[in-house]
Each structure stands twice: as structure tokens, then as C-alpha cells.
Recover the amino acids of this structure.
């Protein structure tokens, strides 16, 4: 089986004097599927996502390896962000410029590191054909879209650059039931269209129980040792 | 009547660069850029200092050098202020106030006093036609036209949109590997460069530079912008907003002067006008956070 992401003996401390926050975490995520990591608040879900992306501070201690599409990446303190892994945060509205249209936001996501003085807005990646089913008017201001539709926009913005793995941090936490279903339906359509792997992190038991029918990882805190464990 | 109209147009053309600059920083980027006041003065000082240092040359060549000098002077103010925010983590309002303090001292040192007369120096603004006894108005119109054309073009580029995005969501860029500090510094440098040009135009048309001549200029900008946005209520970049707002402001100013109101009361009138317009236009926006921008 081909794995999009493998975590190998990941250990992590917030600084040299702190106790281990993670100790020897191991996990494997098969390619081209949606995976779920469940965990209560404070279990370290967002920290784990930060490590997977390679966003760490120089004073943090990190050990182990991650393997992306069979290619090993040694983790180190203060390392640069790992390309080809994109994340949509829980407060996805911070990725969006509300006063502009859906299309313009996609173009903004494609701008270079230093937006050009003389360049017009870049083109955007072709929209998925199934987007029509989600009732999005791509030319109207994003502020008029529903929460679920804005979440879809944030996901498509993250996918404007080449992406192998998409991380979603609590994608339904800020949404009502209808918008949560809309977002999940979109993700299931997406995984059948694009060659990507999606990892969803959530504390929402109902969401995980409903959609993670093939199983899920859970981040738990061992009451005896206070170590965080990643169990399947 | 023609005299009144010419006076309104002349005043509009003098202040147009700084109001366009403030439209970038105060309105689009929603940054409390009080340093515009320093850029207005320092742009005038760098331009007039260049004027004293330039050898004799055609006025057309001279105006290009002087305008570049004034823009660079203003840009330096914006650069210092924005670097304090982006690289020193200083809040933008405090950074503006510190910049004003710094450049007040630098201006005094450069001028070697508080005042410099331009009467003995050539006036590059007179290089074009004289209209109704106004020798500077054609050059002012040309300069304003170039600035409007430049900003019209800028607002259609990546950087122009990025300036609007910053005002809408300053966290945006960090999610897409784009440089927030580049956008912020570029925006404020551009805005203050415009203010520097305006400072020179004001100094040249009045025949002097004075370190306190920027007092109240930010309030003028805010008044003009709010008037413009009251008439054209769009949050997208639209160069007509500052132009129209400033024209209406100067028209109102000249009418009040004609009615016998002395210029000493103008700061108060500006403040009252802003208050009234804000109460009228922004009251319904109080719940969505948009009231911070002008």
C-alpha cells in the first residue's frame, strides 16, 4: 500500500527544559483517502499538525522522521515549512478577503510572495466540475456566502499551489449541521477528483463516528504517565 | 465665479497627492497613518533643499528632479514608520507618533531653523501656460493627472489588490506564503511618497517651507475621504473617491471663506464635518468593525 504520510518516532518538547509533549508517536496515512484524528481539547491536535507542516520554533525540540510519498524528511528545530502540505485552520475566515469575490480570492491565493507592482492578478486553477452542486455564485462577494461555502473556498484556496496532503483543523467546528454536511460532501467529492490525501483533525465525536467508517486515529493522554499517545 | 472655481481647482490639485496617499493608508489599508503629516513636511524640505542644490537647468528638467526628491523624502518617512511596525513590533499608531517626533527633529536640522523662504529660488511649477493669472495651475494639473493615472493603474495590479486585502484581512498573506511586511511597507511608502509631493506643491505655491505646515493635514485628508466615501460608498479601490471628496471639501472651504468664516476656525469646522458625516454614514456599520477605516 502507498502511504502519503508516515510519522516515525516523533518526539516533541516545547523547550529543552520541558517534559516531552509527544514521545515516539507513530502513524501511517494511506494515499488518496480522507483520514481522521480525534482528540479532546488540549490533547495536542494542533501541535501535531504544526509538526507535520514543519512549522516549529528554534527553541522547540523535535525528533523523528516524517515520510511523505516515500521520501524521508528529517525533522529539526526551527525547520522551514514543508512544501506540498497545506492546512486550512479552524478559523478559516482568516484565509479569506471578505469584500472580494470567490474567483478573486482564488487569484489572491496564487499571488507571489511579493505581489507585483506591474503584474495583474494571476490565473486560478480550474474549478472542480462538481462545484456547481454547492450553490456558490463565484462572482458575488464572499461575505454573502454561507459558512460552509466559505470553508469550501478556503479549501480551494489552499489547493491553488501544488499539494499532496491537505490538513483540516476542526473544519466543522464553526459550522451548523447543514453547513457541516455541505463541507463534508465537498471533501468526499474532492478526494475522488484530485490526487490528494486529506487529514482531518477534530474533537467532534459525531463527525468522526459518522464519516470515519474505516477507522481513525485518536490522540489520548495516558493518565499514568501523562504521555500523549496516537492510537488507531 | 471663475476666480472661485480656479481657486477651488488649485487647492484641490495641491492637496490631491496627499489625499490619494491617505486613501491608500487610511482607507484601503485601514492603518492610522499619522506620519502623513511628517511626510508632507519632509517631502517639501527634501524638494526645496534639492532646489537650492540644483545647478541652473530648464524648468521642465528641474520639476522632475524636485518631484522625485519630494517623493523620496515622503517615502523615507513611510519606510521608517512601517519598518517600526513590521520589524519592531511597535503598534502602528505609536509608530506614527514616534516617526512624527523623529522627523520633526530631522526637519529642523535640515532646514537649520523652522522656516525657509523660496522667493529667491526658481519656481519649476511655472514651466507651463499661465491661465487666468495662475502660472502654476497647468503644472499642478499635469502632476495630479500623472498621480491619478498611476494610482488607477496600481489599483488593478497585484500590489493594489494586496493593499485592499490588508485592510480587509491583515492575516491573509501569512496563509499563502506571501509577505505581509512587503505589502505593508510598500503601501505606506507609496502613501507617504504622495504626501511628500503634496508638501512640495504646497510649499512652492505658498513660497515657503515651515516645519509646522503639516499641522491638521491628516484631518483634512480624513474629511475629504469621508466626504468621498459618503457619496461613493464602496469598499473597493476607486480613485474617484479621494478626488471627488477633496474637490467637494475645497469647494466647501472656499464658500465658507467667502461667507466670512476665517481660516483660523477651519480645523474646528473640519472636525465638526467629520463628526457629522461619521454619524450619518458609519452609524449602521458600528457592529461589523468597518468603522475603523475611512
Amino acid at each position: 500500500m502507498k502511504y502519503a504520510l508516515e510519522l516515525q518516532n516523533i518526539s516533541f518538547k516545547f523547550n529543552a527544559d520541558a517534559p516531552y509533549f509527544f514521545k515516539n508517536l507513530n502513524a501511517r496515512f494511506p494515499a488518496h483517502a480522507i483520514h481522521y484524528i480525534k482528540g479532546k481539547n488540549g490533547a495536542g491536535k494542533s501541535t501535531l499538525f504544526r509538526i507535520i507542516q514543519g512549522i516549529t520554533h528554534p527553541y522547540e525540540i523535535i525528533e523523528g522522521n516524517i515520510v511523505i510519498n516515500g521520501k524521508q524528511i528529517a525533522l529539526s528545530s526551527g525547520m522551514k515549512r514543508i512544501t506540498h502540505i497545506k492546512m486550512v485552520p479552524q478559523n478559516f475566515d482568516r484565509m479569506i478577503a471578505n469584500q472580494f469575490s470567490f474567483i478573486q480570492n482564488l487569484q489572491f491565493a496564487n499571488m507571489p510572495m511579493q505581489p507585483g507592482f506591474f503584474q495583474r492578478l494571476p490565473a486560478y486553477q480550474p474549478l472542480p466540475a462538481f462545484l456547481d452542486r454547492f450553490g456558490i455564485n463565484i462572482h458575488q462577494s464572499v461575505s454573502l456566502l454561507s459558512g460552509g461555502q466559505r470553508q469550501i473556498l478556503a479549501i480551494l484556496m489552499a489547493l491553488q499551489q501544488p499539494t499532496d496532503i491537505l490538513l483540516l483543523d476542526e473544519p466543522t467546528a464553526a459550522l451548523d449541521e447543514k453547513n457541516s454536511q455541505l463541507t463534508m460532501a465537498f471533501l468526499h467529492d474532492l478526494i475522488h477528483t484530485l490526487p490528494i490525501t486529506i487529514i482531518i483533525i477534530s474533537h467532534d465525536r459525531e463527525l468522526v463516528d459518522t464519516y470515519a467508517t474505516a477507522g481513525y486515529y485518536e490522540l489520548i493522554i495516558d493518565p499514568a504517565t501523562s504521555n500523549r499517545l496516537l492510537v488507531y | 465665479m471663475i476666480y472661485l472655481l480656479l481657486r477651488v481647482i488649485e487647492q484641490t490639485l495641491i492637496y490631491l497627492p496627499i489625499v490619494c496617499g491617505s486613501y491608500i493608508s487610511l482607507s484601503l489599508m485601514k492603518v492610522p497613518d499619522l506620519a502623513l503629516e511628517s511626510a508632507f513636511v519632509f517631502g517639501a524640505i527634501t524638494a526645496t533643499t534639492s532646489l537650492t542644490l540644483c545647478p541652473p537647468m530648464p524648468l521642465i528638467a528641474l520639476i522632475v528632479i524636485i518631484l522625485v526628491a519630494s517623493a523620496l523624502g515622503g517615502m523615507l518617512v513611510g519606510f521608517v514608520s512601517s519598518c517600526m511596525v513590521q520589524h519592531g513590533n511597535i503598534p502602528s499608531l505609536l509608530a506614527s507618533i514616534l516617526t512624527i517626533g523623529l522627523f520633526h527633529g530631522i526637519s529642523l536640522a535640515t532646514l537649520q531653523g523652522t522656516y525657509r523662504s523660496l522667493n529667491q529660488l526658481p519656481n519649476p511649477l511655472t514651466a507651463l501656460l499661465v491661465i487666468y493669472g495662475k502660472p502654476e495651475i497647468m503644472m499642478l494639473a499635469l502632476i495630479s493627472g500623472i498621480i491619478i493615472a498611476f494610482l488607477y493603474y496600481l489599483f488593478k495590479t497585484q500590489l493594489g489588490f494586496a493593499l485592499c486585502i490588508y485592510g480587509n484581512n491583515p492575516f491573509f498573506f501569512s496563509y499563502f506564503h506571501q509577505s505581509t511586511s512587503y505589502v505593508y511597507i510598500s503601501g505606506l511608502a507609496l502613501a507617504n511618497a504622495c504626501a511628500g509631493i503634496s508638501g512640495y506643491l504646497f510649499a512652492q505655491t505658498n513660497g515657503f517651507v515651515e516645519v509646522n505646515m503639516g499641522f491638521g493635514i491628516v484631518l483634512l485628508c480624513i474629511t475629504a475621504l469621508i466626504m468621498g466615501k459618503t457619496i461613493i460608498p464602496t469598499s473597493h479601490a476607486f480613485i474617484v473617491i479621494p478626488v471627488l471628496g477633496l474637490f467637494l471639501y475645497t469647494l466647501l472651504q472656499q464658500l465658507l471663506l467667502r461667507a466670512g468664516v476665517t481660516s483660523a476656525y477651519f480645523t474646528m469646522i473640519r472636525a465638526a464635518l467629520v463628526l457629522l458625516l461619521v454619524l450619518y454614514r458609519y452609524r449602521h456599520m458600528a457592529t461589523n468593525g468597518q468603522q475603523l477605516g475611512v
User: Anything to note?
Assistant: The two ends of chain B are 32 Å apart (CA to CA). The beta strands of chain B are 115-117, 208-210. The interface with chain A takes residues 154, 156-159, 161-162, 164-165, 168-169, 171-172, 175-179, 182-183, 186, 235-236 of chain B (CB under 8 Å). Residues 288-292 of chain B have pLDDT under 50 and may be disordered.
